[in-house]
UniProtKB/TrEMBL annotation:
PANTHER family: GNAT FAMILY N-ACETYLTRANSFERASE, LD18367P. GO terms for molecular function: N-acetyltransferase activity. This is N-acetyltransferase domain-containing protein. InterPro entries: Acyl_CoA_acyltransferase, GNAT_dom, NAT_camello-type. The chain crosses the membrane at residues 46-64, 70-90. The keyword Transmembrane helix applies. Keywords: Membrane, Transferase, Transmembrane, Transmembrane helix. Gene3D superfamilies: 3.40.630.30. Residues 86-231 form the N-acetyltransferase domain. The keyword Transmembrane applies.
Length: 247
């Protein structure tokens, strides 16, 4: 029996169009769950939760009395659970609109009109699929379209995504390295930098960027109720070549 293998291949519009668009939208929204968890587990949220539950128990007279059975203590799960609901709803309501806005901006991006045409308009640009056992499990894009307009020496890494079950293998690092290698080929020596962005709400991407060699280059935006920082990241050709020669 042949074991399934992972491979990276070019985007095929006839085969990948709907799924890639879905994955790109999913990547834009996937930080929401992390934002909600981090908001709910914040010390201020936990303190508020305990306070609300205590006030509810006090108001209803539900504090166990001496001699009560263990059921009296177990019954406190109900008010504590009820007190968590408004905090969860408040967190999601406040975080969601940041990600809804991000998703709209991504889906209205110039590259989303015609994916194949956009990522074929420069020899460095590309949209690649990470595939395992015939299934799409990841996406990455490299955008060098600004070269034609401004003679820029910068390529942009976009839409980095890997399905959650495969992230523990750190295959996202291989996907990012594949795109970076395309940018820094000798025949395209005019490309001096690859830039992208990351946030702590997508830790698997941020960790992989660190391992590939992308360094922090300032803050471009904030996300969510607790204002998590969206960091600019940059990898230069010199740093890439140095890391390759030393590996």
């Amino acid at each position: 029996m042949v074991e399934p293998v992972a491979k990276i291949r070019p985007y095929s519009p006839s085969h990948d169009e709907k799924q890639v668009r879905f994955v790109i939208a999913k990547a834009a929204m996937e930080g929401l769950a992390s934002a909600n968890m981090k908001t709910i587990s914040h010390p201020m949220s936990i303190s508020l939760w305990v306070l609300l539950a205590s006030l509810l128990i006090q108001f209803m007279g539900w504090w166990p009395k001496q001699g009560d059975s263990i059921l009296a203590y177990i019954s406190l799960m109900l008010p504590f659970g009820s007190a968590a609901v408004p905090i969860i709803l408040f967190s999601d309501w406040n975080n969601r609109w940041y990600f809804d806005d991000l998703s709209r901006r991504v889906l209205r991006g110039s590259d989303m009109v015609q994916l194949e045409e956009y990522y074929s308009n420069h020899p460095i640009s590309g949209l690649w699929i990470l595939e395992f056992a015939g299934q799409l499990i990841g996406v990455v894009a490299l955008d060098a379209s600004s070269f034609d307009k401004t003679s820029s020496d910068v390529a942009v890494l976009r839409h980095i995504y890997v399905d959650e079950p495969y992230r523990t293998t750190n295959i996202q690092k291989d996907l990012i390295e594949y795109a970076v290698q395309k940018a820094f080929t000798p025949e395209h020596s005019n490309v001096k930098r690859v830039i992208t962005s990351s946030s702590p709400l997508r830790e698997y991407v941020e960790k992989a960027l660190d391992e590939v060699g992308f360094r922090y280059d300032g803050v471009s935006d904030t996300l969510g109720l607790l204002k998590w920082k969206v960091s600019n990241r940059v990898l230069t050709r010199d740093e890439w070549e140095r890391r390759q020669s030393s590996s």
